[in-house]
Here is the input.
Amino acid sequence: MELTLENLVFFIKKEIREEKEILSKDRLMEDLNIDGDNAVNLLHYLENEFNVSFKDFDFKENFLEEWELRRLSIKKYLI
Here is the structure.
């Protein structure tokens, strides 16, 4: 598939099974709640579908890891 904004939005919407409209300004973590293992999987699918590489992408700088998400979830229930 050719990497265009339209194709990218379509692909992300299909992969996360999102019913609402996804806008080009939407952020994966903050707006679409994609983080942890879901973010890792999405990046892997994007690499395969669009023949791109995230080899130099700093995941920890942009997303929380699964263990961090669990810790935040536990804290939320304790407060």
Notes: The chain has a mean pLDDT of 80. The radius of gyration is 14 Å. The first helix runs from residue 5 to 16.
